[in-house]
Write a structure and sequence with these properties.
PPR-containing_protein; PPR_rpt; Pentatricopeptide repeat-containing protein; TPR-like_helical_dom_sf; mainly alpha
């Protein structure tokens, strides 16, 4: 049996990396009578449940963590792993909707996950074609949690809005990229051009095309045929 929390955490980490988070949790349950766990202990277990896509046990461990160490804005990795595990898990135990419920609770408690959760959740909402849910997540991410999107996230959001017929909203996301550390790339320009040309929005298409050429991004062959 480990003698202190540092040794316990090291052993739990090794066991979880081996894909045996159930065994790690059993060891934790035996050890906690003598060793007080810290925030890192729970991070290790939650990362293990995330890697094994076990939202059920993740929820139980998360509840234990909150009861034991409370809500701590510094505990970002734990919140990140827990919410990401929920996104990957099937309903009713998991899913994006469940993750969003817990995100709201975290917001009230002045705690936040990290970018991994937001990237994962956005990707799932894009896969589902849920533009409204993606917009809600985006607003929470940027306005309430000060987690700023990268180029890949902008590309997903712009493509989603365009595919559901909201090309103007896609343009709005494109135009706001300059305010964040996210630069448009070839994918950004080509997706916008495709839908602007299809919608005969030629003024916007010309503007996007000029910027694209100025930034030396290649035009997709498919877009040549839409001109």
């Amino acid at each position: 049996m480990p003698r202190d929390v540092t040794a316990l955490n090291s052993l739990l980490s090794v066991i979880c990396r081996d894909g045996r988070t159930v065994d790690a949790k059993a060891l934790f349950d035996r050890a906690k009578a003598e060793i007080r766990p810290d925030a890192d202990t729970y991070v290790i277990l939650l990362e293990g449940w995330e890697n094994e896509v076990d939202a059920w046990n993740g929820r139980r461990t998360f509840s234990e963590m909150v009861a034991d160490v409370g809500w701590d804005p510094r505990n970002v990795p734990a919140y990140d792993s827990f919410l990401t595990a929920l996104v990957h898990a099937p309903s009713p135990v998991g899913g994006v909707s469940e993750a969003m419920k817990f995100l709201e609770i975290m917001t009230v408690k002045r705690c936040s996950p990290g970018p991994k959760f937001f990237q994962t959740a956005l990707g799932e909402l894009v896969r589902l074609g849920d533009a409204r849910g993606a917009s809600t997540l985006w607003e929470s991410m940027v306005r309430r949690h000060a987690c700023y999107p990268d180029t890949g996230m902008y590309n997903e959001m712009i493509a989603l809005q365009c595919y559901v017929g909201q090309v103007e909203l896609g343009m709005c996301f494109f135009e706001e990229m300059v305010f964040y550390p996210a630069l448009p790339d070839a994918q950004t320009y080509n997706v916008l051009l495709k839908f602007l040309l299809k919608g005969r929005k030629l003024g916007d298409a010309v503007m996007v095309f000029k910027e694209m050429m100025r930034n030396e991004c290649p035009l997709d062959e498919a877009n040549w045929h839409l001109r």
